């Protein structure tokens, strides 16, 4: 079995362009949540989301005008370029030995929304002839493969909020097994359009107030958007090209609840984290920080904390726990990938970013997370969790690369 | 005021029955929602109707986590409607 290392990462988020901008925002607790207004929603009930800032949209300007790319693919390509540049990959490093695995929950949501509005409301027959290739869920992965000439296996997992984590986990498993030598993996989401936002309103899991994971006064999640992409390689291939290794990906667990489509199951979530620990050959006490799924809904808070206690012990054994979603929002299919980037940064800085907007320990769960300001730790490993609708759990563990 | 509130209670009760697909004659305020077989999908329908008719947004979260009986739900809806009316009039 190969060891798998991470040599590059990129992010596009409400915190700006780049994994450093994302890290600076989460560690300082600077939220990217801002007011959003959708012209096709009358009486919008929820007024904010972690949308890309006007500066970021301006910086992506020409790319967003691409006639064959929905914003979801633009974000993915942008994050991939950053990851590839950091990894120092050159033209010869791609080809058949390089895979691309990029997930998305909604795919080309803007293209779908725009075209349905034009078709259904305005009865237009002149729609976007490129709508199909822009909407399809694999477009982000395909555009990234085209950008770099990566002709190895390509997958586009669509497992709601676990898409990004499962993409990275699948890449890790393929590298470990020797099916490929390197892979661009992650998730992308550009779901902040009227039609999608309205149906999230109707599901009523979004808060009209601030997003406050684990806090007694939490009242739901806040949507986000963006992309997170990492470059993963076998240790041998990274060494062969003299790459700078950022960390090692040591463990991945994934399972499903096979229970309720929307209500998570704490036993399955803890089994998932335990599977990742087993895969990594680590004890719970080796993990210094967990970046939780932490959506800020009561269902997730109760389930995830219960699962964490089952894995790390009733008192959580000194592991730091937080949710960074109040900063970058819940970016659905990109969430696991954006949070993997946060986990790698946390590991490298030995700093647990805070759960901002936290007011008070909730007696229902009794969790006192890293709240409102960052907290240093000294540990070789960090875990990142995703617990998706559909009952799909995924846990990734990154560790310091010690040679 | 009393009659206005009881009108509202009656309207809300009708709304819960309609959207929860329960015969109104079977609903008493002290009934537990679960005993009336009102499930999470029905909740979402009830909350959608509340938004349509009264303009209030209630997330399926903390606010609902302590709701067990029909009366709990009516109280929450009534409080939210009053809050919303105050905001609208402000």
From TrEMBL, chain A:
PANTHER family: 3-OXOACYL-[ACYL-CARRIER-PROTEIN] SYNTHASE, MITOCHONDRIAL, POLYKETIDE SYNTHASE-RELATED
Taxonomic superkingdom: Bacteria
SUPFAM superfamilies: Thiolase-like
SMART domains hit by this protein: PKS_KS
Name this protein carries in UniProt: Nodulation protein E
Annotated InterPro entries: Beta-ketoacyl_synthase, Ketoacyl_synth_AS, Ketoacyl_synth_C, Ketoacyl_synth_N, PKS_Beta-ketoAc_synthase_dom, Thiolase-like
PROSITE patterns in UniProt: KS3_1, KS3_2, PROKAR_LIPOPROTEIN
GO MF entries: 3-oxoacyl-[acyl-carrier-protein] synthase activity
GO CC list: cytosol
Pfam families hit by this protein: ketoacyl-synt (PF00109), Ketoacyl-synt_C (PF02801)
Pathway: Lipid metabolism; fatty acid biosynthesis
Keywords: Transferase
Automatic annotation (TrEMBL), chain B:
Stretches assigned to the Carrier domain: 3-81
Gene3D superfamilies, per the entry: ACP-like
Species lineage: Bacteria, Pseudomonadati, Pseudomonadota, Alphaproteobacteria, Rhodobacterales
Pfam families: PP-binding
Identification of the protein by name: Acyl carrier protein
């Amino acid at each position: 079995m190969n060891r798998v290392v991470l040599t590059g990462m990129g992010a596009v988020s409400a915190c700006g362009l780049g994994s450093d901008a994302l890290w600076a925002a989460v560690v300082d607790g600077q939220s990217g949540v801002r007011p959003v207004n959708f012209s096709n929603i009358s009486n919008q009930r929820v007024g904010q989301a972690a949308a890309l800032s006007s500066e970021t949209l301006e910086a992506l300007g020409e790319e967003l005008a691409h006639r064959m790319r929905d914003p979801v693919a633009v974000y993915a390509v942008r994050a991939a370029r950053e990851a590839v540049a950091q990894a120092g990959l050159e033209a010869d490093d791609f080809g058949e030995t390089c895979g691309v695995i990029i997930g998305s929950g909604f795919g080309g949501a803007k293209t779908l929304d725009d075209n349905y509005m034009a078709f259904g409301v305005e009865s237009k027959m002149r729609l976007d002839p490129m709508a199909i290739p822009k909407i399809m869920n694999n477009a982000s992965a395909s555009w990234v493969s085209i950008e770099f000439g990566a002709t190895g296996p390509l997958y586009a997992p669509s497992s709601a909020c676990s898409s990004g984590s499962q993409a990275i986990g699948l890449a890790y498993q393929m590298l470990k097994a020797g099916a490929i030598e390197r892979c661009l993996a992650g998730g992308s989401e550009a779901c902040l359009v009227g039609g999608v936002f309205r149906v999230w309103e109707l599901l009523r899991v979004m808060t009209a107030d601030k997003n406050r994971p684990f806090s007694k006064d939490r009242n739901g999640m806040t949507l986000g958007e963006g992309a997170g992409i990492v470059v993963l390689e076998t240790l041998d291939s990274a060494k062969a090209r003299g790459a700078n290794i950022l960390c090692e990906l040591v463990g991945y667990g994934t399972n499903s609840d096979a229970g309720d489509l929307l209500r998570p199951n704490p036993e399955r979530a803890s089994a998932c984290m335990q599977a990742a620990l087993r895969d990594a050959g680590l004890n719970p006490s080796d993990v210094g920080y967990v970046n939780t799924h932490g959506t800020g809904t009561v269902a997730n808070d109760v389930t995830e904390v219960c699962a964490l206690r089952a894995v790390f012990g009733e008192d959580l054994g000194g592991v730091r726990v937080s949710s960074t979603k109040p900063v970058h929002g819940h970016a659905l299919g990109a969430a696991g990938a954006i949070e993997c980037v946060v986990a790698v940064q946390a590991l490298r800085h030995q700093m647990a970013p805070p759960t901002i907007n936290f007011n008070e320990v909730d007696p229902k769960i009794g969790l006192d997370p890293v709240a409102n300001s960052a907290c240093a730790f000294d540990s070789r490993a960090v875990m990142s969790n995703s617990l998706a609708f559909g009952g799909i759990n995924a846990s990734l563990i990154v560790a310091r690369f010690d040679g | 005021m009393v009659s206005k509130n009881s009108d509202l209670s009656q309207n809300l009760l009708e709304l819960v029955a309609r959207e929860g697909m329960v015969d109104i004659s079977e609903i008493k305020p002290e009934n537990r929602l679960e005993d009336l077989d009102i499930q999470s999908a029905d909740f979402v329908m009830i909350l959608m109707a509340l938004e349509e008719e009264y303009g209030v947004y209630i997330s399926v979260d903390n606010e609902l986590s302590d709701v067990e009986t029909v009366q709990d739900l009516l109280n929450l809806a009534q409080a939210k409607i009053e809050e919303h009316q105050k905001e609208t009039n402000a």
